[in-house]
Amino acid sequence: MGRQGNSSTRGGAPASGSTAVRKPSAAVYRRRRLFVGGALLLVIALVTGFAVAGAFSGKSEQVSSTDPAAAASAGPAASPSASATEPAATPTPSATPTCNQNLVTVSASTDKAAYGSEENPMLTLKVTNGGTMPCEVNIGTSQMEFLVTSGADRIFSSRDCQAKSEDLLKVIAPGASETANFPWSRNRSVEGCQPVEAKPGGGGAYYIFTAKLGSKASPKAVFQLL
């Protein structure tokens, strides 16, 4: 019994049946307040961090849908805008239909096959577009020539005494023609329009009329001077 009494009082500890409670010291209260405050700050920081992360995540998605630079880096989504900046293709000149000048022909004719001594031949130059497209042709006096020959003898040319040389561009429809008439006075001419006293002979002689337009020359038209 005396040994138990000694153990109950060892170290100054209260007996097991005692209700006395020691109050924590001021230092313990301060440590508890610091611990609670730190935990609260930690929770606030975590919540704030998630909110900020969510806000930046939403902003990033908005930028990716509206920012041209971000859209350009998105790969296939940027291809339509890139193709829109490319210049529109233009047709090459070869793709545009044009008339074939080789199908523009020149012909020569006279109003009669034979002329009496008092009749002057009417020489006619005719330009025809034999193609399927309209053609612009220069039918001015700068291109025309009415040439009369007899064998190797050059009798007359409308260029020898031509007062003016002018261009006249005209669009000729497919299958259409343009004509020019020249009344020949049965005279001779030389280059430079020098006077010539000799006249073409009659008596049933044959003459050849050739119409020229630029580099094109007509087939020969034969007529007779009586």
What does this entry look like structurally?
The chain contains four helices and eleven strands, in the order H-H-H-H-E-E-E-E-E-E-E-E-E-E-E. It has two domains: 27-75; 101-225, Immunoglobulin-like (Sandwich), CATH 2.60.40. The strands form three sheets. Strands 2, 5, 6, 9, 10 and 11 form a six-stranded mixed sheet that branches. A three-stranded antiparallel sheet has the order 1-3-8, with no helix packed on it. With 226 residues, it is an alpha+beta fold. It is rod-shaped, with a radius of gyration of 58 Å. Strand 5 and strand 6 (153-157) form a beta hairpin. The protein starts with a helix and ends with a strand.
What structural class should be given to the helix and strand makeup?
Answer: alpha+beta
As residue ranges, the low-confidence spans are: 1-19, 43-84
Q: Main beta sheet, described?
A: 6 strands, mixed
Overall body shape:
rod-shaped
The proportion of residues in beta strands is 25-35%
Q: What integer is the average pLDDT?
A: 75
Count of DSSP E strands?
11
CATH topology of the largest domain: Immunoglobulin-like
Could you name the CATH class of the largest domain? Answer: Mainly Beta
Please tell me the total number of domains: 2
In whole angstroms, how far apart are the ends? 184 Å
What is the CA-based Rg, rounded? 58 Å
CATH architecture of the largest domain: Sandwich
Instruction: Estimate percent helicity.
Output: 25-40%
Order of helices and strands: HHHHEEEEEEEEEEE
Please report the number of helical segments.
Answer: 4
